[in-house]
């Protein structure tokens, strides 16, 4: 019953991937390392669909396994006589010359949907002959024979990555690799005045926006508190408190950096809360090249990495 | 022997050794094909359990972790859209009768192409959703040229993407107009060209189960089939995109930004390589401050139509003969049309 096992394997792969997605979205906040918080319902939905599809498929194939008899071999003989050419392309097993022969596996996959999908629209009436309602075994022999495509194995890779590497949020490696300046926050043309006493908590993006674009210079002489991770700077006497900003997922992340002066650099990638005041830039116009706003640090506290690592 | 050839473990190192973080044991293994199917999955599970204790403490190199984060992010980001697209496609084949499309779309394919392109404005999905939907449309008898116009238009001109573009380019409404116009123009042009010059043997239209069985069983079956195919290719594209994303330093690009025609071409190529979701690419384009608006427009027009994960998905869905013709054609047209629109509007 290799055919049925093959079917089982397909469904197991789907279920496994679904479980991995649920693991990072429904049962933990790991998904925040990869996508925006608002994406959670979609992830849970997608994971649930995968798991449900896989489990239904498993149940179905176990039922069929019980009800099927020994006529499987006959079904296969018929398959071969029916359409020898396309399927032979993938039938060479490991002797396949090009492991990446997409057209070949694709042809093979044509037969995999279910009975009746025997081949890719060639319209061969013979492909329909095995689908009489009472002819379960033959029909299924045909299906499973050309079951899932080999490339479906790749769906195990994210599962390996999630469970074995457990990719963390992007850190100093990504932040120092990418030296593009952060996009100017064009929307924040009207900055509200900073009120209250003591240090003001603000996102690093807001600090950068106020530092460069605020005509009223609202940051002047105000103590602010920024939270981010530590990235070493090439210049001496400073380091960057950094936060990655993502628009959609971690693939489009870019670093928001503020140069901190006057405090010894903590170990790279530590999450810190740094309190200090803005050092107004001395140049009138933005110079060319990459430049970061500066903060004169007063105090520093180590903090745990936040659940939501990106801004 | 045919029946053991699928979903089995055989030496596929081409994909894995270069890009895979941890080539699973099962990939390189020569097992007898009769045993391969049940054992393949068992190896996966064993490797997961053992690797959790044996490998995880050693897989901590920053470059590897960054790569893995980007890879998982691309997969995780695209998966819900893929599931959504696959479900929609399966619903089209299982629940919408074929006669619906012949009634809705104009009878003449040359007219059906622009109508299908405009219809792309309704599906709020990214490009991963549009490939299975287009294949479902073809399987239901929609003219391939019209389905292709829909495939190209829908990720680029749907409302979600246009709003994201407007947010990313505040005060530049012309960017949204140019993106809409250029994307629709490319989609329709490619559809017409395919109608005029395309040959049916290049395009492998996936066949669907029809007729027997309850509709829900057909629906589930079609979904499972599409997921197994498109899912594998999506992940292949994610592997390539994550690798390039981590390896190409973006500051190289700013030096190129000065030469106008080169900048357009480079941004178009970058869109292909980075494979960013069409709902996010506007923000990335906006962050490339060194480039001209026309170059950014090229990035926005090419990205949803041609990128690594799409190429993989299209190859998997429609066949290689299709992809080697369709992808270069789309890319060239997208670059030319966006240069034209950029010159006219921006």
Q: How many beta strands in the DSSP annotation of chain A?
A: 6
Query: How many separate domains of chain B?
Result: 2
Helices of chain B, by number, come to 16
**How many domains make up the coordinates of chain A?**
2
| Strand proportion of chain A | 5-15%
Summarize the biggest pleated sheet of chain B. none
What level of helicity do the residues of chain A show?
25-40%
Q: Which strand order do you get reading across the main beta sheet of chain A?
A: 2-3-4-6-5
Structural class of chain A: alpha/beta
Which H/E pattern describes the elements of chain A? HHHHHHHHEHEEEEE
Biggest sheet overview of chain A? 5 strands, mixed, barrel
Distance between the termini of chain A: 53 Å
- Sum up the overall morphology of chain B in one term: globular
Please describe the structure with a list of short key phrases separated by commas or semicolons.
heterodimer, A: 311 residues, OB fold (Dihydrolipoamide Acetyltransferase, E2P), 2 domains, five-stranded mixed β-barrel, B: 346 residues, mainly alpha, 16 helices, 73% helix, disordered N terminus
List the helices and strands and how they pair.
The complex is a heterodimer of chains A (311) and B (346).
Chain A: H1 2-25, H2 40-67, H3 72-82, H4 84-90, H5 102-110, H6 136-145, H7 156-165, H8 172-177, E1 200-201, H9 204-213, E2 223-232, E3 238-245, E4 254-261, E5 271-279, E6 294-302
Parallel strand pairs in A: 1-2, 4-6
Antiparallel strand pairs in A: 2-3, 2-5, 3-4, 5-6
Helix pairs in contact in A: 1-2, 1-6, 1-7, 3-6, 4-5
Chain B: H1 13-19, H2 33-54, H3 62-95, H4 98-104, H5 109-119, H6 127-139, H7 144-157, H8 159-168, H9 173-197, H10 215-247, H11 251-256, H12 260-274, H13 281-287, H14 293-302, H15 308-318, H16 320-345
Helix pairs in contact in B: 3-6, 3-10, 5-7, 5-9, 6-7, 6-15, 7-9, 8-9, 8-13, 9-14, 9-16, 10-15, 12-14, 13-14, 14-16, 15-16
